[in-house]
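Trying the structure run again after the queue cleared.
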Amino acid sequence: MKPFLCLVVLGLALAVDPGLSQYVPPPPPNSYPSTGAPYGADPAALVRSWYQRFLHREPDWMMKAWVDALQTGQAPPMVLAGILGSDEYYAQAGNSPEGFIQTLFRDVAGHAPTPREYSYWTQRVYSEQRQNIAYALLVRYPQAWQAGPAVITDDYRYDYQRPSYRYR
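Done. Tokens:
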């Protein structure tokens, strides 16, 4: 009977002050305001690591814009999608939708796309911005790109409709 009593008291408290139900705790320290997720205390170091890992070079003057975006609350996957959707990344991937998808999968998902994934995502390149496609893959495979350098596998256990963590 006590759990029921607690629910009644909580219900009364919310009826008296509806603002209690809208309380959102502040993000933990060393996290980005938009997500509250700990992506590292140093946005500059994070962006530098992305330049080195995905563009294979040291950052240039554009790094400041990416760091500012992180510091003002833009989610890290959105910022990284901007880098991966850039003309420079596309050129390194062979300047073709097919090369872009192959490279993006290896860099973000850590494996080559299956024939089904390859067909699906390549078709999307023709109708969507590259940044949006990169973001979709970053969200689908967060554990692969957050953990450090990708471990490339060529197995085909993955499906473009489901996140890879469901296969483990």
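The radius of gyration is 20 Å. Worth checking whether this holds up in the mutant runs.
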